[in-house]
Amino acid sequence: MKKRILCGLLVTAAVVSAAFAAGSGEKVSADLVPFRLGHLNSTAHLLAFVAQEEGFFREEGLAAELTQFSSASELAAGLESGKLDVAFIGSVPIISFQATGHDLTIFGGAMTNGHGYVIKSELVPKGYKEGDVSILKGKNVASVKNSVQDFELLVLLKNNKLTPGKDVNVVYFNSQTEAYNALQNKGIDAVSVYSPYASRARDEGHTVVYYCNEKTEFHDQPCCRQVASTTALKANPALFQAAERAFIKAYKFSQENRAKTVDDVNKYIPLKRDLVEYEVYGGHSVSTPDPDKKATVALKSGVVEFGYAKDYNIEPLYNTAIYKAALDSLLKDKPNDAVYKGLLAHFNEYE
User: Fold this and answer.
1) Is 106 in a helix, a strand, or coil?
2) What one-character DSSP code corresponds to residue 43?
């Protein structure tokens, strides 16, 4: 019987198979290690959802508990208070947190791209072409401060010679949910979104202004990263390597089992199934566990240059060894697996 040493506990296949199915209510074996993960109301966090629903956490000896939060700041607070082991946090907010002294380390990825802006359809002029940011001129647009989508908005406004506060009135809210709900008010014309809010907006009759992956400024823009307390990562790398193996397995599953992946995500993001499927597989975002260090460091430079965060040394707060060790161990078991080999090629290019 194959055995795995995790966090000082001996975890066997028998113990794992005895664990409860997600949400079944059955007692979890005491030999499984508690693992607490924080996520947002986003289809892009499918790695966590699939890892839980398909039993990959349990295979790695983890009794996972997934909790939805409303903002990056809440997720960071959960890590720093010890209430969470891992959180999926947007690249721009985690850069801002690190820049202001938060001892949080990026060790993997969760999503690339997935943001945009939507506007009330009655404000769209005849002949409008999607992607024309000038439509926001003179409008009140809702956004979330210290978010990837807000940074992207400000960059696009600058590149289109539009000045916030003069040409465009940006109104800030504490969470994506609050910002999106503000679109129901007469005083708000447009709103920033991450997945799945663009699909939800279109379904409710609004118009997409742009998706960030369609903008040259944001090609392959890294968004949510896997983040943990730096101290916890150093103290117990086996825990995070086990979680990373589960995330990598979830990614492989998502590449090979489209219908079941949509079902898994839909359990956590209760939208119409076709909207969930479009958000996951429609081409505007990719959920991948790769740390994507090169792209994130480049984003950090852009964020600092733009003045969105102060400069700092990101190197001590970026750990790619956890991911590489997890991927190598999976490749050792399945050296010819096409998905794992593709992940390794990407890692070697973008580490």
Assistant:
1) strand
2) G
Same domain, 201 and 282: no
Q: Which domain holds residue 165?
A: 115-218
Verify that 233 and 328 share a domain, yes or no.
Answer: yes
Structural domain total, the chain: 2
Q: C-alpha 228: how far from its chain's center?
A: 14
Give the burial string for 283-296 (b: 16+ CB within 10 Å, else e).
ebbbbbbbbbbebb
Q: How far apart are CA 244 and CA 85, in angstroms?
A: 12
Nearest residue to 113 via CA among 17, 22, 43: 43
**pLDDT for position 130:** 83
**Collapsing DSSP states into helix, strand and coil, what is residue 93?**
helix
pLDDT score recorded for residue 9: 39
Q: Taking the C-alpha atoms of 271, 272, 274 and 275 in order, what is their torsion angle to the nearest 10 degrees?
A: -40
Beta strands 190-194 and 140-144 are: parallel
- For the chain, give the percent of residues with pLDDT over 70: 91
Torsions phi, psi for 109 (to 5 deg):
-110, 170
3-state secondary structure at position 229: strand
Q: Look up the pTM and report it.
A: 0.90
**Which CATH number does the domain housing residue 200 bear?**
3.40.190.10
pLDDT-based confidence at residue 20 (cuts at 50, 70, 90):
very low
Query: Distance between CA 57 and CA 42 in Å, rounded?
Result: 20
pLDDT tens profile 83-102: 999 999 999 999 999 999 99
234 lies in the same domain as 334? yes
What phi-psi label fits residue 78: left (phi over 0), alpha (psi between -120 and 50 degrees) or beta? alpha
Give the type of residue at 320.
Answer: T
- Spatial separation of the C-alpha atoms in residues 112 and 295, rounded to whole Å: 10
CA 122/CA 111 separation, integer angstroms: 32
Q: What CA–CA distance (Å, rounded) separates 259 from 229?
A: 35
Identify any residues that bridge with 115 across adjacent strands, giving them in sequence order: 194
Q: Are residues 209 and 97 in the same domain?
A: no
